[in-house]
């Protein structure tokens, strides 16, 4: 990607048509596809879907529906559990969420702040859920 989001916003406002904008900025545009992006990460990192699912505590059938693309808009918490189980960094998780139309983790939200803290500390989904539960927050 060569242009910032602010640059793209400016270009959108100044464009005569969407087609001309798209033609000039195609390399910077993302076509979000949760299953495709998850598959790319799994391949890049040499991960096992079954291990990710086991570590994530996400229902096996639901998780495989996410991986296959049958669930095109999976629950944010379930997606977070899978991403955390893939041992992605906070930045990678935030980027994944944004690219797929989900709200990024927000430090002003107490629950999201707890998630950010736990991810930064490298905690597992099980440990994160224990932390959330002990503070009266909804688990992943």
Main sheet overview: none
Which structural category fits the helices and strands?
A: mainly alpha
What is the mean predicted local confidence, pLDDT?
A: 93
Distance between the termini: 32 Å
Describe this structure in words.
- It is a single chain.
- The protein has helices at 5-14, 18-25, 34-45, 49-56, 60-68, 76-85, 90-99, 110-120, 125-134.
- It is mainly alpha-helical and 140 residues long.
- Helix 4 (49-56) crosses helix 6 (76-85).
- The chain is globular.
Topology diagram in text:
Blueprint (H helix, E strand, L loop, with lengths): L4 H10 L3 H8 L8 H12 L3 H8 L3 H9 L7 H10 L4 H10 L10 H11 L4 H10 L6
Helix pairs in contact: 4-5, 4-6, 8-9
Key terms:
140 residues; mainly alpha; 2 domains; globular
Quick summary:
By secondary structure, this protein is mainly alpha-helical.
């Amino acid at each position: 990607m060569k242009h910032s989001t602010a640059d793209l916003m400016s270009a959108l406002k100044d464009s005569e048509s969407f087609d001309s904008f798209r033609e000039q900025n195609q390399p910077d545009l993302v076509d979000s596809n949760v299953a495709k992006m998850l598959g790319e990460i799994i391949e890049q990192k040499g991960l096992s879907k079954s291990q990710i699912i086991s570590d994530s505590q996400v229902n096996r059938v639901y998780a495989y529906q996410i991986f296959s693309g049958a669930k095109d808009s999976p629950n944010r918490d379930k997606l977070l559990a899978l991403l955390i189980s893939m041992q992605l960094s906070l930045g990678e998780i935030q980027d994944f969420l944004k690219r797929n139309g989900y709200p990024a983790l927000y430090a002003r939200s107490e629950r999201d702040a707890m998630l950010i803290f736990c991810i930064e500390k490298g905690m597992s989904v099980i440990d994160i859920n224990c932390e959330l539960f002990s503070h009266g927050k909804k688990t992943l």
